[in-house]
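Continued from yesterday's entry.
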Amino acid sequence: MYDIVANRRDNRLRIDLTGRMNAASIDEAADVAVEEAEQLRDGFDIITDLSGFRPPSPEAAKPIKRAQQHLKEMGVDRVVRVVDEETSEVVVNAFERRSRDVGYRGEQAGSLDEAERMLEQEQIEGYAD
């Protein structure tokens, strides 16, 4: 399951992924993420909550990377991924590897509140190369 919302006031995209999603759901979520991001200005940030997400099937990798590429091209600045002790390292590593492949790195936070605080801090160089 997913919930994806663009907040134009904060220029921020919020992506919540939960459970084990099949390839069709991941593909749909990737499209929605790009559509929502179209409402934002260049230099937008993303918070991706992976704390309830379970490793998807291998075929889900392509739509995730496709969305990351589009978001990079659209002008993403910082990406913070919310993870907790239950979040699979497979998920964390897969998201980071694919984002590096398209030209940016993500930061990690232990909660949504922490992610918000991180993005309110001063800009950090090098996340969207």
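--- second protein ---
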Amino acid sequence: MRLPEPFQTAPPAAPALQVSVEGGSAATGLLALLTFFVALVLSVLVTYRFVRGYLRSRSKPILGLAVGMFLLAPAPMFIRLVAGNLTAVAEPVRILAATTVEAAGLVVILAVIYRGRP
């Protein structure tokens, strides 16, 4: 008497690699990405103008505004961009890091504004 051979199944086919959008259409995703990069470029340009103003005047408050502006806009955007593409960084860590850097930027700007006032 012959024993039945074990039932074998083919391994599942790998899904085709493709980009998928969650929470909206592909056009909405592309528009959001385009808006993100436009905001990133504009924030870097504003920070650059602050740095140029500091280099011309050597004024410490202008340097403080440049640092605060960098921490408020471009730095958190870079953190979101880089950390969002790394699988080792959990979403809560990424959100906390970006929010902490933004808060630090606001603190620096407020320190520059209120320095010397009673």
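The chain has a mean pLDDT of 84. Residues 13 and 110 are 57 Å apart (CA to CA). Will compare against the first tomorrow.
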